[in-house]
Amino acid sequence: MRWLLGLLVLCLVAVGGLWVAAGRGTPPALEITKPDRAVGQKADLEVVATSPAGTLTNLNIVLEQHGTETALFSLADPQEASVTDLGDGRTKVVRPIGKTAIPALQEGPATIVVSATRKSLLGLRTLSSRASRDVQVRLAPPAVAVLSTHHYINHGGAEMVIYRATPADVTSGVRVGDIEYPGFPAVGAGITGGDPNLKVAFFALLHNQDLRTPIVAFARDDAGNEATASFIDNVFEKPFKKSQIPIDDRFLQRVVPDILAHSPEVSAPADDLLKGFLVANGEVRRLNAEKITQLTAATAPALLFKGPFIQLGNSKVEASFADDRTYVYEGKAIDRQTHLGFDLARTAHVEILAANDGKVLNASWLGIYGNCVIIDHGMGIASLYGHLSSIDVKVGDSVTRGQVIGRSGATGMAGGDHLHFTMLVHGQPVNPVEWWDSHWISDRIDRKLREAGASSVATGGQPSRPSPRATAGGPRRNKRAGRVQ
Predict the structure, then answer these.
(1) Would you call 292 helix, strand, or coil by DSSP?
(2) Of the segments 33-37, 70-74, 157-161, which one has the largest average pLDDT value?
(3) Which of 77, 207, 353, 379 is the most interior residue, by most CB within 10 Å?
(4) How many domains does the chain have?
């Protein structure tokens, strides 16, 4: 009898141990990845549930607002949701959650609540977890109104707009096709008055965008609600050159090993210079463009430049902006790229001057540009100086218009000593000719700032009325620019 009692005690202890062990299992892990802070007319809900060493027995999602619960999802009733098995016990649930999907949604605070259960060891117990996120429901779109006038843009060129976006904390700017150019508080451009809703944005119609590309000012809140306003008066086509660039073994031997040595992120055969050239001219060029966009994102929220930009004095224009180049080796076309700047040559190792006031963002080797300086001029405007033989500034330096920043050279993808110069709008190359032109600066920038009530024009240009040459027919040519090729 005693041994039976002992056996019973042992069984009870074992069962109790299993019960306790089952209760110590890991419950499902829940993550609400979307929405972040707000829900608008259209929004997505995204939840990831992880159930280690077990299968979910229940997963429920509800939205609580003003004392009312709205069921959004359950395993038994998925409604409009899509369910994806991500592997490793992870399940993702995605469904629309905006006003269009949930008509009962109202302005104001709401809470998304997710609960899940799974069976524990041997199915003895049920393990549960809960997650929630507070969000704001915003159904009214923001507002955007363009205040400046006479907006003309050249193909491959830039423009500026002054607008009001409300409320002040919305994301706003100009969208050209699928590219967005952010706006900056107008106080940074010398417009006083303390209106936090007033913004200034520079933008571009890129050389490879269609002339009919939609251009709108926009204002978008955290909930995805958006308002837009069209404002462009006219778009002007600009002819771009096409040229052939012959390359030979001597050129390949001089430039390819150096570029690839500075580009460890790409792979190219060391014993095939022609393949190495194609990698440098293609992949390295693409990575350089990404790096330039990254560098210029650190722009100042105020205009730093004053007046027109300086062109390399007494220089010969060897290549112009948006030149469609076909590279020819031993009589055969081997590659095609677009030259996005001006090649300016004078004499070897000539002093290179800062085109305008600003702050140095890059002062080192940059792929196909060799030794390269990039200067931020504020509000997304920057200038780039490539192929330098030496650099006399460092990152973080403030420079003034006409200050020596280095000397010309033939580093990177250069056939000879020259300066590759271009202007950038939020990292996108634009035609420098406009920025060299005092009339363009006055018409496109200074006039708008004065009309908006700027007490002093930050760019330092002279007052002028919109000129047909600058607004309707494109930029005036700087007499020192030489022949545009």
Answers:
(1) helix
(2) 157-161
(3) 379
(4) 3
